[in-house]
Amino acid sequence: MGNNKKCDIIIAGVGGQGVLLCSDILGEACIIEGIPVKGAEVHGMSQRGGSVEAHVRIGGIHGPRIPVGRADILIAMEPLEGARFSYYLNDGAFAVVNTAAVPLLGQSYQVNEILDIIRNKTSNLITGDFSKAAIETGSLKTLNIFMLGIASGKTPLQKESFLAAIKKSVKEKFVEMNLEAFKSGTDMGK
Amino acid sequence: MSSIYALKGRVMGKKYLLGNDAIAYGIAEGGAEGIFAYPGTPSSEITHKLIELSGKYGFYTEWSINEKVAYENAYGVSLSGKRAAVIMKHVGLNVASDAFMTSAYTGIVGGLVIIVADDPFAHSSQNEQDSRRYALFGKIPCLEPSSIQEAKEMAVFAFSFSEKTGLPVMVRSVTRISHGKSDVSMKEINFVHRKSSFEKNPAKFVMVPANARKALKALNEKQECMRKELEEIPFCCEEEGNETGVIVSGISYQYVKEIKEKDNLPFALLKISSYPVPENRISRFLKGKKKIAVFEEGDPVLEEIVYIIAKKSGSVAAITGKMDKFLPMEGEYSIETVEASLKKISNKPLPSEPVIPVLPVRAPVLCPGCSHLGSFYILKKVFGKDAIYPGDIGCYTLGIQLGMIDTCLCMGAGINTGSGISRFEKEKPVVSIIGDSTFFHSGITGLINACYNRSNQVIAILDNRTTAMTGHQPHPGTGETAMGGKNAYIDLEKLVAACGADRVVTIDPYRIKDSVEKLEKIKEEKGVRVIISRRSCIFVEKKSVTPFYVDTAKCTGCRLCMQIKCPAITFGEGKAKITRQCNGCGICAEICPLGSIRKKNNGQ
Predict the structure, then answer these.
(1) ipTM surpassing 0.90, yes or no?
(2) CA angle, corner B245, sides to B241 and B246, nearest 5?
(3) Is residue A25 in a domain?
(4) Which domains does chain B have, with CATH numbers?
């Protein structure tokens, strides 16, 4: 991880998995702590089931995008999408990768081969079928927050800031469910 | 008239905002009382946020049916003395350009701000045109933010600057500003409502030739005053350095700053924030420089100007940028491109090239249960894969993956392209495809022309009851308005009939057999035959979904269901399989010849 409170995070997934909400929560947590933050995301056509990436730069004061080879954390909600953005990681970066694949129309891939691409970049990674885990703790819809929970301990942000940011960013009736998912995630990340 | 919004207001702490949201706050802070927009990536969220804010501050926000309509509405608000904003994506300005060009001649009354979001790399667009060219073409000022904070502040500043110059002012965003995010310092919004005060002044506002000639002279005379004002624009900044200078405009400034600070590079730096550029400032910056590099996204607009200023001021600096192929002409700049270029001009070792893994591409697709999947299946079944399918702009452009979109030029072009092709094509049927929102945007004129001039084509209006691609904005066919009003909706069938269509057939794209039967009847007819294929987008009509499953005992693996290209249907071990992505449309169940696709009951 970078010095002081700098930390560059890439969140990767497929349209509809809630990549952008993760980015919102990280940003809100920075505001709560008074840390500068920048980010970049994908909207529009690519959201229709395509690859979605969000960059969040905790402590960021300039560019919205993380330079290649300098990301500290990768949160990948889908293995192929994790591998796609793995070249952004720096040496020793932390990665949390969901092994539950979202199939491509008319193409197939071996999850293990795909995970090796990420393993070649970093050995500091947690993998697992987090879709299943999210369903077990409540709903597949909380996969994003569950995985954010796993990665949260590796960021310079406080747990309380995350909790407050979730309350601020999620619709009221889903707050409890997401706080639960976040807590389950943080336990797994320990 | 108050023109110092930028200086007023209490600081209200920080928010983490999408660039477009920040621009929306700037428009509200600037005091726009009338806001008009047509959705388009990457600009749409600006209007979404303004709709949210309109209740609180009492301003008016509208989804207009196209950008020209939006522009002219905003112009009208401005003529009545109030501030107005018009918001669009870059290609939207092509649609609005007729009004835009002459509004510079007449000038404006209340501040009129045009927010245009360019899309370098065409992430979600049909081209990468550079709106700064339009500002220069129209002879109006253009402000170009280099950060999200600046985008908000420029939006505020643009209103007062518009009133100072008497001209519409453009703020040019790009994807990385509009869809970037940042902590943003907020200000309290003290919204001022003005009295509506249209004053007759035909010599100024009626552009008959005699008045237009005078207006052009006045516009040309304004240029000097505009340039002078922009010499002192507060957003411009400069850092001293060695004999190498970097001149930068827009978001590229952030990349340049990041690399300059990281590697402690000693070049001098000048950030440009407006067009016309501060010529004297650039001229001073060029003094004593041996080398100048220009960074900007889009066309080499700034670079061309720097060449002219260098010539005028007798600078001997070697200028590099896009024109000598040092930097790419196309796409957006990455921080990697900027880093490599800055190191080259600073004579530093270049960073190593990253190894990018080669992986299967996950292209955007139509959603499971999308009504367009049904429409395409039906059209292909009836008219065949060899029919000619001129297309248009919307989610259904993704029909290119099914071989069902043969052209896509601009909003509304499909019907007219189809008319052109069918004028001489006698063998193959021509079936133009257009969405409901696009039809209201610019399809109606094409339909009227096709009917009036006796075109021989089928026009399929895929009516999914929303503007789906850009985030589900309402349109006249829904009757709902931006601010939540429920007005009388425009009846598409009646409208199409009134335009003169020879035949109008409405189908439900979820009912394959029934629809195919209906269309077979009009296939051999002549003239303009309009199909309205109506079924709400799955995001609009949210209802509980009963998914389908494949009875593997019955499935013979004929792959007929795979032809729909539904993302929820996969194939493995000789059988079709329906994943949990299924939205329960039932198209596959209807076409399965063996009845092996069935609705799930509880517990299955």
Answers:
(1) yes
(2) 115
(3) yes
(4) 5-190+203-231 (3.40.50.970), 237-345 (3.40.50.920), 371-534 (3.40.50.970), 548-599 (3.30.70.20)
